[in-house]
Amino acid sequence: MVRKSGRSQKIGDQIQREISDLLHRELRDPRVGMVTITAVEMSPDCTHANVFYTCLDAAHAPQAAEGLRHAAGFLRSHLAKRIRLFSTPDLHFFYDESIERGARLSQLIDSLSRSDSH
Question: What CATH number should be reported for the domain whose range is 6-117?
Fold first, then answer.
């Protein structure tokens, strides 16, 4: 397990809030749509940020990925204005499958418990 420093965790949390706000208020790319930022993991030197997102509709994820990749420069430049850092991190976007995986596991557990009760 990698131990995260308090500083990089705080910066990641702040970047998550700011990107969420920018997506909601500033970004006008229809490919992005209803995207939720679920987490931001910072590199130890805070030069890279892995931004995890999810969509309401999993089928929309490829379009959202393209829109986010295209908007990375726009988001990074706006982050530089909002957050005072020596260097604004490069943004790398990854689809977060944990919510879907959790829903599938929950369905499996429910179906097993229903079959056991019969």
Answer: 3.30.300.20
- Spatial separation of the C-alpha atoms in residues 97 and 72, rounded to whole Å: 21
Q: Where are the domains of the chain?
A: 6-117
pLDDT digits (tens, 9 = 90+) for 3-14: 466 888 999 999
pLDDT (tens digit per residue) in 17-26: 999 999 999 9
Contact between 12 and 40 (Cβ < 8 Å) = yes
Report the amino acid identity of residue 15: I
**Long-range contacts at 58-66 (CB < 8 A, ≥ 24 apart):** 58/100, 60/33, 60/34, 61/95, 63/31, 63/33, 64/31, 64/32, 64/33, 64/35, 64/95, 65/93, 65/95, 66/31
